[in-house]
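hi! just following up on the protien thing from before. the input was this:
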Amino acid sequence: MSKIDLSKNKAVLEAARDVVLKDTTANRYVIFGYADSGQSNSLVVEEEEEGGLEELVSEFNSGRYQYGLTGVQSDGKGVKQILIIWQGEGTPILRKSACAHHAGDVTKFMNVTMTVKARSEEELDADLIRNQLDKSSKY
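and the predicted 3d structure came back as:
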């Protein structure tokens, strides 16, 4: 099992992450992926944009393993940061297996309130994700 490389691009990764973590409007998002068209174990920033959760869920690549970070407005609790762990349906099975072992390290690095795993377009529903967040932050 190969470890994920979070150090090679650490400064860029942290800068992108911190923009989202400090965003009080829940409008920014970042998609992280793997270098070399997904074949490397080095995490890179693939996209930094505005548009929040709605835009983020439409930007994942069906043939890639990616991580999406954004803020979501939670009922009465302010902005909560979530990490979406995307396993595109077209991602090769061996790559899915390798990357699945990276999720814990990536989650820790992102310092988020909640993670959501998605493996199909249907699971990338913004309302469904919001409902999951609201249920998890009731207490």
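The first strand starts at residue 28 and ends at 34.
The beta strands are 28-34, 43-50, 65-74, 78-87, 114-118.
cheers
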